[in-house]
């Protein structure tokens, strides 16, 4: 299988908190959930450390075809816990966390698992694209009923609103009626969206962190067929380059309100026909 991967930090001088990789028959995207400055995590490790360790362990675990993807993710979360249980407070509500998207070929089908707001797009041969993402975080944010934030990205007022949102979201994270992410609770894996599709029905599959999907699902500058066309013709790097152009045209986040002017962006793309 020929897989194309691109991953780029939101800013050149910051760590990339995404993880994007592939192994024979397995595709993985992990998007670490960074917190604003001033929000405690109870952990001595960075979000990048968490995302990369979880990603590497999940890539290996998902390669074991005796395991379902839910079991593979649960075991990977448990193994990361073991890496820092003696140095960090794993019961802290701000412990590092991440979104997850996994696709795996098994018995002529493509299995998938999506947890939180990374996106998996199935390029279906005889139908339109199917974009699969977990909207529960967005639903909780909508419930918070926050007023519109007119302050520019990077301003003190904007940073303060972000800190307040993260602190308010803590009571909803990995809770019934809230939203679910990979963090310290292995049971979160059972809350992921899962499914499978016959390979014969697919032309391609794409996994995107939310920093790479925003041209379609946040900015509204592309449709999912547009995204797939760019990936097919020019590859993941071109999609990220176009995302950066759009972000640069609205650096203060006035046209498209968002937490970061430029987010880490990662894409894994497999042309099933190749």
Automatic annotation (TrEMBL):
Pfam families: PP2C_2. Residues 26-217 form the PPM-type phosphatase domain. This is Protein phosphatase 2C-like protein.
